[in-house]
Write a structure and sequence with these properties.
The complex is a heterodimer of chains A (290) and B (396). In chain A, helix 1 crosses helix 7 and helix 3 runs parallel beside helix 5. Helices cover 37% and strands 13% of the residues of chain A. By secondary structure, chain A is an alpha/beta fold. In chain A, strand 5, helix 7 and strand 6 form a beta-alpha-beta unit. Chain A is globular, with a radius of gyration of 18 Å. Chain A has a single domain, classed as Thiamin diphosphate (ThDP)-binding fold, Pyr/PP domains (Rossmann fold). The longest helix of chain A has 17 residues. Chain B has 396 residues and is an alpha/beta fold. Chain B has 2 domains: 244 residues, Rossmann fold (3-Layer(aba) Sandwich), CATH 3.40.50; 144 residues, Rossmann fold, CATH 3.40.50. In chain B, helix 6 links the parallel strand 6 and strand 7. The longest helix of chain B is centred in the middle third of the chain and has 30 residues. Chain B is globular. The termini of chain B are far apart. Classes of the chains: A alpha/beta (290), B alpha/beta (396). At the A-B interface, strand 1, strand 2, helix 3 and helix 5 of A face strand 3, helix 3, helix 4 and strand 9 of B.
């Protein structure tokens, strides 16, 4: 069978990683008239080992922290040339929430016509599972180790990057989960129908860093949403966020127990309670009691 | 027609004459007037370009790469800390072989923070794979920016260029500058057309791929070849510019060197002071010559070796310092002159952080240079620095 995905198979991404699935579905909607800017990270490293490439559209990688700035330059040049194409940035959570935050903030503030997609596997996975600003409370990573003195692992809550983008009054901001394909596709299509800076936050399983079963990649992120931990919502031009999927609110342990990075928490219910309280507070702020 | 222009204005006029398509920027003293002028040119319709005010110099050079790779002619300007912040991305711009041209207001690096002139900022980037030009005057600043586009965009080169103008001494000082006619510049530069592969949806390609040990070195070697070819292209472009505009440039400029025993080597604005000093001394019968380096990358080894052959003493005026070694220009001249044992090469660290370089400075340089004719002198000489005060403080 002919494979005509714009993101070609044969790349080196891990089995069970959600990122390539996210990318190929976004490109399928965006089409050939697309330019991709990729921040340094797994997606970049594992898909472009010279002289091979998985990208059937123009693609560029410059560095870790500047995808949004590179895209700004491309968009400016295109304006001058009178060309129109979709410009998409793909960055991991490290390249977006931390080291690339300034460039992203600038790109959105200046109003560049770019779609930025953060595929969020909640740590620096390319360098080997180090905590990022998007690592959730209670997760083990190699730089938020669990031990006698620190039984929790990562002690800080996850940085709400998508909400920060709403505060920037980005033209469109949404959280997406590839396990909810209809919601995912509708939001990606909507993102391409709006001009201006747009931001999608896609949760992305990392079996290597999450210490999870590679065959359960999509099931696990489905649980992230069904427990309420990764809510699906959207916002236009800084308006209040609208929930686009009502979760089943399954017990969060259902999600935590699928991943070795939370194993230590299961023996310490007091910390799980803290996650539950934060979860309740988030949903209460958005009009839902759980 | 000659107009009174500050160095920054000369650079801005050069970008306007080159009809840049995109100007990504972040303000920094002493080069801020360049983006201010471009902003004005764009606002009043004199220049049809996209002006992007970015969130940092790091983002500015990143946007420059994006725009250049999309097939736009790109210019920008920065200095000092801004250039240092770009450091990482400078290597990527040259590695991706993009002909971006950048004006630099040569300024000292922190700490202590200092906004005045020296060459430390660009010297720290000499390995970044960019061509480096240093202007003696505002006219040279304008001309070198124009020529840098032609050289960088040449298919045999395809490397970015930086053109240094000394902070304040040039960037903020008015000098008469001949602004060339637009049609003459159009004829010289030709209409911009990217002579490299671009981000093109009709012809997709992958840029900035992952290069394993199996391939990486070949990319670096290709850069080496481009720099070597640039030597020839620079000569060609300098010659063509001279014929068209009547102002002649060469990688190094030799004056009074023929009969000289002692040769001063300078870069940038202090050359003028050195020239007048040497003229004065020659009237006293002292055989001193002057070499101005205009092109520092690629380093004009052949020209310097030829010019210095048989000279007794070379006094390298370094407006920069590499702690643990000495001046950068000194190091390069020393390596270039390897084997020429009859020539003494002495380093003079002067004018750091905007300390004025005057006749007095050169008197001290000459004194040591003359002393070396008779015997051994220090290889690295700090001129006009209060050594006593530093030593006293260090003893505490």
């Amino acid at each position: 069978m002919k494979n005509d995905w714009l993101f070609a198979p044969g790349h080196g991404m891990c089995a069970g990683c959600a990122a390539p699935i996210i990318v190929k579905h976004i490109l399928a909607i965006s089409g050939e008239n697309t330019i991709v800017v990729n921040a340094t990270g797994c997606l970049e490293v594992a898909t472009t080992e010279y002289p091979r490439t998985a990208w059937r559209i123009p693609w560029v990688h410059v560095a870790f922290e500047n995808a949004a700035a590179v895209a700004s330059g491309i968009e400016a040049a295109m304006k001058k040339q009178g060309e129109k194409a979709n410009i998409i940035c793909f960055g991991g959570d490290g390249g977006t929430a931390d080291i690339g935050m300034q460039a992203l903030s600038g790109m959105v503030e200046r109003g560049h016509n770019v779609l930025y997609v953060m595929y969020d596997n909640e740590a620096y996975m390319n360098t080997g599972i180090q905590r990022s600003g998007a690592t959730p409370y209670g997760a083990w990573t190699t730089t938020s180790e669990v031990g006698m003195v620190n039984p929790i692992g990562n002690i800080r809550p996850k940085k709400p990057v998508a909400e920060i983008m709403v505060a920037h009054r980005a033209a469109y901001v949404a959280t997406v989960n590839i396990a909810f394909l209809r919601d995912f596709k509708r939001k990606v299509e909507k993102a391409f129908s709006i001009d201006g800076p747009r931001f999608l936050h896609a949760i992305s399983t990392c079996p290597t860093g999450w210490r999870s079963d590679p065959s359960k990649g999509i099931e696990i992120i489905k649980l992230a949403t069904e427990t309420g931990l990764f809510p699906l919502w959207e916002s236009e031009h800084g308006e209040d966020i609208k929930i686009t999927y009502k979760p089943k609110f399954l017990p969060i342990e259902e999600y935590l127990k699928t991943q070795g990075r939370f194993r230590h928490l299961l023996k310490q219910p007091e910390y799980i309670e803290r996650i539950k309280e934060d979860l309740k507070a988030w949903w209460r702020r958005h009009g839902v009691e759980i | 027609m000659k107009t009174m222009l500050r160095g920054n204005e000369a650079v801005a006029y050069a970008f306007k004459l080159a009809k840049i398509n995109v100007f990504p920027m972040f303000p920094i003293t002493p080069s801020t007037l360049v983006p201010e002028m471009i902003s004005k040119f764009v606002a009043n319709g004199e220049l049809d370009a996209e002006f992007i005010p970015l969130d940092s110099e790091h983002s500015a050079i990143s946007a420059a790469i994006g725009a250049s790779l999309k097939g736009a002619r790109v210019g920008t300007a920065t200095a000092s800390q801004g250039l240092a912040l770009m450091h990482e991305i400078l290597f990527i711009a040259s590695g991706m072989r993009l002909p971006i041209v950048m004006g630099i207001g040569n300024r000292a690096l922190s700490a202590p923070i200092n906004i005045w002139c020296d060459h430390q900022d660009t010297m720290a980037e000499r390995d970044a794979g960019w061509l480096q030009f240093y202007a003696e005057s505002n006219q040279e600043g304008l001309d070198l920016i124009l020529m840098a586009f032609k050289i960088s965009e040449d298919k045999r080169v395809l490397l970015p260029s930086m053109v240094g103008l000394d902070a304040f001494v040039l960037t903020h000082t008015m000098e008469p500058v001949d602004i060339p006619e637009q049609d003459q510049v159009d004829e010289f530069l030709g209409e911009f057309k990217a002579r490299y592969r671009t981000l093109d949806t009709k012809n997709p390609a992958t840029f900035g791929a992952f290069g394993s040990p199996r391939h990486y070195m070949e990319f670096r070697y290709a850069q080496h070849l481009a720099m070597e070819r640039a030597k020839h292209v620079i000569d060609e472009v300098f010659k063509e510019f001279g014929e068209k505009f009547g102002r002649n440039y060469s990688k190094i400029n030799e004056e009074f060197t023929e009969d000289a025993d002692i040769v001063f080597i300078t870069m940038g604005s202090c050359t003028g002071t050195a020239r007048e000093f040497i003229k004065m001394k020659r009237k006293e019968g002292k055989k001193i010559g002057l070499i101005k380096i205009t092109v520092f990358r690629p380093f004009p080894k052949d020209e310097i070796r030829k010019a210095l052959k048989g000279k007794k003493v070379v006094a390298v005026i370094d407006r920069n310092f590499s702690p643990g070694f000495g001046g950068a220009v000194y190091g390069e001249v020393l390596a270039t002159m390897y084997g020429e044992t009859e020539t003494k090469i002495i380093d003079f660290i002067v004018g750091l952080g905007g300390r004025d370089i005057t006749f007095q400075t050169f008197e001290k340089v000459l004194e040591i240079a003359e002393k070396s004719l008779e015997g051994e002198v220090e290889k690295i000489n700090w001129i006009e620095v209060d050594k006593e005060a530093v030593e006293k403080e260090e003893m505490k």
